[in-house]
Design goal:
alpha/beta, 6-stranded mixed β-sheet, Rossmann fold, binds 6-O-phosphono-beta-D-fructofuranose, 13 strands
Amino acid sequence: MKYINPIQTRSWKILKNHFHIMKNVNLKDLFLSDNNRFKKFSIFFENEMLVDFSKNFITQNTLKYLLNLAKEMDIKKAIQLMFSGKKINETENRPVLHVALRNRRNSPIFVDNTNVMLEINHVLKKMKDFSEQVITGEWKGYTGKSISDVVNIGIGGSDLGPYMVTEALRPYKNHLKIHYVSNIDGTHLFEVLKKINPETTIFLIASKTFTTDETITNANSVKIWFLKNIKKKSALDKHFFALSANIQNALDFGINIENIFQFWDWVGGRFSLWSSAGLSIILSIGFSNFEKFLNGAYAMDNHFYNAEYEKNIPIILALISIWYTNFFNTQTEAIFSYDQYMHRFAAYFQQVNMESNGKSVDKNGKKISYQTGPIIWGEPGTNGQHAFFQLIHQGTKLIPSDFIAPVISHTHLKEHHIKLISNFLAQTKALAFGNSEISFLQDSYFFKENKKDLNKTDKKSLFKQCVGNQPTNSILIRKITPYNLGFLIALYEHKIFVQGHLLNIFSFDQWGVELGKNLAKNIYKNFSTIENSKCFDSSTKGLINFYKFFYK
Ligand code: F6P
């Protein structure tokens, strides 16, 4: 596959010219000039999801030019290569096969002449059997008691994804209490240890590499705490498990080989929730719900692989994102889930998007001269409305955002849900059209623009103006079920894949995080001598001096 610099493509040049026409576009005008706008710029997915992308700075020509870019960059070929198991993660010489984890058709996928479906199905079966034993109470702890608590010890993709999914699917959870410990700040572990009984708790050490300092530090501390309470090393076999691609390190830690749930190096950490890294999800909602979750992702995989460009939801959302990042020069992209259970959805996709596309060297090793991945942020609605929406309504930044909401709530509080949806609709409307339709024009300076002496009322109204013209995508999902959450997550994963390909970057490594890790290890090793060392800058020395002054 050729590595094409997107800005050198014919489509990009056409988009640049088109941008000069569109840069002052007004969403109000786009809607006033076309009563069918919603119909033209929205797509249904399996009658379970509606994606409305009509409130964007796009016309049919814009979409045509953007789709031409996708075609010129041969996205379909890139998709086929990923699904085929080709080593597209070139800097780590690995395939990218999180799609194999939910390949429900079970068609063979080969990595180095081995059909990976065999080992995937073996681990799925192992997780099914184990989770059923724990959930039914058949699995006993060292003192013969059933399990009540599960502690997942992991960070990044070994934490964010599983935590987000177990939270989003709380309506499907069983009696087990699931805890997540990720930060090396001892507070995180301390607060969980206060809540659990070592006799009835299992610990999942989730780490693809089984070398991440936060995870191994937390795991060692838990092991010491556990053995202080239980006093028998053999008890570890009933309570400690590893979710990892590094079998040897897990064995060296003291995990029984039978207690290791393997995943593989062709599963990126931030894409690993579908693998054994997601065991806490299975323990929380049960294996059959986890299978529905996989089925939903598989449905989106099929859509992504087969849908024509013009109807391909991940491709369209990725192109709209590129339109803002690379032509309107936006810096961030927000995700607002109008669903409290989905409160960690944006946080999860901070890692998936920013760790994938936060790059500045292209596939040919050249320094990139254009913008790459956006900053992803967001909080659940309606809370965001009472925190930072002011800036989006009246600030100076252009902030494209995705609004996601379920049509059907899991709670019986119907009135609450209708108010939630009313806010969802109101916000995307207000962001698009502002308040010019309401009272602004009647008592504003612009209405009486020839008048010199503004009276008090007019002047005040200037501070109330919301010009709107902030673009949004609205995603309505019938209900947040395991299946539907599965396809929603896969949708965003594939959108990020397309963005990365269009930006001509390798989206599946994360070399940028290594520097900080190594520096931390070096500082930790030299902690007692830093202030006298020549190797450290005056700021680091000044900071460590302040720390040492208090930490006697
Ligand atoms: O942040 C860097 C990173 O390697 C992530 O990509 C990964 O999800 C996380 O650290 C944890 O890595 P591991 O699962 O190997 O402990």
